[in-house]
Predict the structure of Large-conductance mechanosensitive channel.
Amino acid sequence: MGVLSEFKAFAVKGNVVDMAVGIIIGAAFGKIVSSFVGDVIMPPIGLLIGGVDFSDLAITLKAAEGNAPAVMLAYGKFIQSVLDFVIVAFAIFMGVKAINRLKREEAVAPTLPPVPTKEEELLGEIRDLLKAQNNRP
């Protein structure tokens, strides 16, 4: 029973829950970026370089024989994955940069001392009068 309670304490900690949410959002973001790269970025690039679709680029190492499939070196899929990574990394970099800029702006903003209320001003005056009375000979 001790291991189960330790696991429960571990699993419900804020860090674990936050990490799980981050992983789920990251997976969804990865799908969005893959679609963006495959459906928006790659078609114009393919058009510019003569209609080449990177994901179809491959070298046949061994032709198909009977029921055995062909052995292919699919370097186009690798190029696509590298491009996906670069775009995701750039998007994350820009997001972190924006967050850091906002944090710096918050830190730089000077905080003005709070204006004392009328009650605080009266209490200060009473304190000063009591001090003055106590300092008399």
In short: The mean pLDDT is 81. The helical segments are 2-11, 14-48, 75-108, 118-134.
